[in-house]
Amino acid sequence: MKLFPLFATALALSLLASGCSVFKKSGTTVTNSSTVKTTPVKQGGNTISNYDESQIAPLLGCWAVTSINGEKVTVNGENHPQFTFEAIPDAKTALLVIAYNGCNYLNGSWIVKGTKLDPNGEFISSLRACPDAPYENALNQALNQVVSYSVVDDNTITLNSSTGRQLMTLRKRNLSFLNGAWQVTTIQGTPVPANTAIKVVIDVDECKIHGNAGCNILNGTVVVNLDKGDGIEFKDLATTRMTCPAIATEQSFLLALEQVDTCVEGASSDQAIMKASDGQPLLTLIRISPDQVDAE
């Protein structure tokens, strides 16, 4: 794989517009993203158009890089290395590869043959100089050696060298299900009283939470932690200052929300369980219509 410079102005248009956002620790979203045009995928001089697209299915989506050459990735936020893999129309075993090494975006494609990954042409790169991207060179060199992948579990894959050595470990970001409107049903195992409605709207992509905390209007920031599976935090929480009979329940909710460390689906994608750093459930929520929040 060779990395060809691409002017940042061209790359800044839409590199991750069809992929995933990168989240700063402060909760703001990095928007310098672009999808670089890809030429039709060729193999043996013929355009690929009739292969089983299920071959690329295990790879599709947004992945945080958790280790490179056996070294754990410890940065978080805007400098966290990550990958987005997307299907290419009319090329069912071709995979669009968008990598972020903590400083620059790399864009290219692979042909997927089982678990084999064959480069399709050259990768191109944005051209920035970053003093705070400790994994930039390591990721570039590792990407140059990738020839296959292995599935560890539903949320984890490895990218491997020709000798089978694990070059990088990638973990899927699984918080998109959390986008939408929710009603809190329990707080640290205690059911929310029937006469108290805690309803919030969470927007992971825009890093925002707002709604009714049970008594007061709530606004805050969502921070996605890329250095842990399903990692999420709620920061800068602010409410209006009314008092009402449900204020004690509201205070319990806000305290629990500030302690949230991860979030996973419950029995379905319409139920969410927010957990503390020790894995203990703090809040359970059920999906509701956004109109139910706006009506409050």
Structure, explained:
The protein is mainly β. The protein has helices spanning 8-11, 136-145, 247-259, 290-294; strands spanning 3-6, 22-23, 29-30, 42-43, 46-47, 61-68, 71-72, 82-88, 91-100, 105-113, 116-119, 123-126, 148-153, 156-160, 166-172, 180-187, 190-191, 199-203, 208-212, 217-225, 231-239, 262-265, 271-275, 281-288. Strands 1, 6, 7, 8, 9, 10, 11, 12, 13, 14 and 15 form an 11-stranded mixed β-sheet that branches. Strands 16, 17, 18, 19, 20, 21, 22, 23 and 24 form a 9-stranded antiparallel β-sheet that branches. Strands 2-3 form a two-stranded antiparallel sheet. The termini are far apart.
State the major sheet.
11 strands, mixed
Radius of gyration (Å): 21 Å
As a percent range, the share of helical residues equals: 10-25%
> What is the count of DSSP helices, taking H or I runs of 4+ residues?
4
Distance between the termini: 55 Å
Cα shape: elongated
Q: Whole-number average pLDDT?
A: 82
Order of helices and strands, N to C? EHEEEEEEEEEEEHEEEEEEEEEHEEEH
Number of domains: 2
In CATH, what is the class of the largest domain?
Answer: Mainly Beta
Name the structural class. mainly beta
CATH architecture of the largest domain: Beta Barrel
Total number of beta strands: 24
